[in-house]
Amino acid sequence: MKKLLATFALSLVGVMSFAQIEGKWKTIDDETKQAKSIVEIWKKSDGKYYGKVSQLLIKPANPNCVGCKDDRKGKPILGMEIIRGLVKEGDEFTGGTITDPKTGKTYKCTITKEGDKLNVRGYMGFSLLGRTQVWQKVN
User: Fold this and answer.
1) Which of 2, 61, 97, 137 lies at 20 to 30 Å from 67 by C-alpha?
2) Domain locations in the chain?
3) Burial class (CB in 10 A: 0-12, 13-18, 19+), 27
4) What is the pTM of this model?
5) Per-residue pLDDT for 63 more than 70?
6) Cβ-contact 100, 122 below 8 angstroms
7) Which of 37, 96, 105, 109 is nearest to 68 (CA)?
């Protein structure tokens, strides 16, 4: 009986942690395939998920978001909140936005987790009209 309870408890923890996106993730540049930053994702008290650039691995041409059109305009990329307002729906996190600090453009965002990787999809309008980046877990 104890073995059965222990197995059940470990399985439950494994299933619950599978869908969690909180933590630090390494972003990969689409063009150069080089790691470019570390993004830290956390859950706020409103139950939504947010992410900020916690480390730059490649020095950007401009350290500020000159293309941003909202409260982030002209602000440093380091420390910038680039993911805002994601909510967990089943196995995916959606309903929020992601901002590309290089261009300042903001897109709708959906994130799914597969093992130690995140599939981060930014899109305009329909999810089919976008692109997906794969982010790697930082231990």
Assistant:
1) 137
2) 20-137
3) buried
4) 0.84
5) yes
6) yes
7) 105
Query: What type of residue sits at position 114?
Result: E
Taking alpha carbons only, the member of 89, 110, 111, 115 closest to residue 18 is 115
| Distance between CA atoms of residues 54 and 35, nearest Å | 13
The pLDDT tens digits for 78-88 are: 999 999 999 99
Residue type, 84: R
The two tokens of residue 9 are: 């408890």
Is the pLDDT assigned to residue 124 strictly greater than 70?
A: yes
Per-residue model confidence (pLDDT) at position 15: 41
Buried b (16+ CB within 10 A) or exposed e, 59-89: eeeeebbebbeeebeebebeebebbbebebe
Dihedral sign for Cα atoms in the order 82, 88, 89, 95: negative
Among 52, 53, 49, 54, which residue's Cα sits nearest to residue 19?
49
27 forms beta bridges with 37
Q: Which of 131, 76, 67, 53 is nearest to 103 (CA)?
A: 67
| Distance from the Cα of residue 18 to its chain's centroid | 15
